[in-house]
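Today's session is about reading a structure prediction critically. Students often jump straight to the picture, but the first step is always the sequence itself: look for stretches that repeat, for charged clusters, for runs of hydrophobic residues. Only then move on to the predicted structure, which in these notes is written as discrete structure tokens rather than atom positions. Here is the chain we will use throughout the hour.
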Amino acid sequence: MKIKEIISVLEEMAPLAYAEDFDNVGLLVGNNEDEATGALICHDALESVIDEAIEKKCNLVVCFHPILFSGIKKITGKNYVERSILKAIKNDIAIFAVHTALDNHQEGVNKIFCNALGLQNTKILVPKQNFIQKLVTYTIPDNAEEVRNALFNAGAGRIGNYEDCSFNSKGIGTYMGNENSNPEIGERFEFVQGEEIKIEVTFEKHLQSKILKALLTSHVYEEVAYEIYDIQNTHQNIGLGMIGELSSEMNEIEFLKMVKEKMECGVIRHTNFLNKPIKKVAVLGGSGSFAINNAIQVGADAYLTADLKYHNFYEAENKILLADIGHFESERYIKNHIVDYLMKKIPNFAFVLSQINTNPVKYI
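Below is the predicted structure for this chain, in token form.
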């Protein structure tokens, strides 16, 4: 099996197009044409993890956080990033990162977070914007079903929990071909007027080339008329953070004790208790200060995230229990999820769960 075959499965789990613009996901080091000897799944691709991959004969390291994040101009081994990259290159080890591609997936980081706490009725906290496009095309009635099905099979027409969504309307189309045309209906220089079906579907914008290929191969016309629009709708099934509900209310102290146990937190920093029961809980794995107001707006009783600064705690405005449970802690079950997913998809391959705890934060 080549590394690229494993990567294709990883991209099914966490499509790279779901990642945030600032992020650096995908294959960071190595050649995807190499034969895979084994894959080590980790949280951070540190030098110690690369050593573990060498020991366990894995030439692919799948990490959550990208070891290469910002620009790098030299690789001299002067810091932990460069040392990891150097060791990986010297030992022909590829590194693949998923990060916010998995953060934004509805079954990804924050769903894992919710599951660990037993939250139910989960929804995306911050739905992704500027991610949906709309295709409008026209064809004869006899061709409409074939075109629609081709578009659906390419990924168009998915809205929330529904598939094969489209809007179809009848109208009259006209055209006249020139001397270079080869019309399916009518002749060159003949004015043709006939019934057409207008088909409208939405799709995730990263699927555009696939959608257009499906349209052009299924359509009967020599020249296919179509339009593509960017639309303002948020994508309710893709985005950062989640909101869910506990099966029963808990008081604030009981709730935080439960979180500390389930997420194995060394410590939890939190705002003043409001003496209100906790039922509706918002979560965002990793750095989530930017979504405090989102959690308040959706009516969450508590918001769990990480990397909060001093002044972020004031933003709770006595409206919500705000808790920083630790960056690593909020993401601690991700590598287990990746291993489980890969083993189900490719059961006869060596996927190894890293045994190294890469959390750089310690507590006393």
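Discussion point for the tutorial: The chain has three domains: 3-99+333-353, 109-128+238-330, 132-233.
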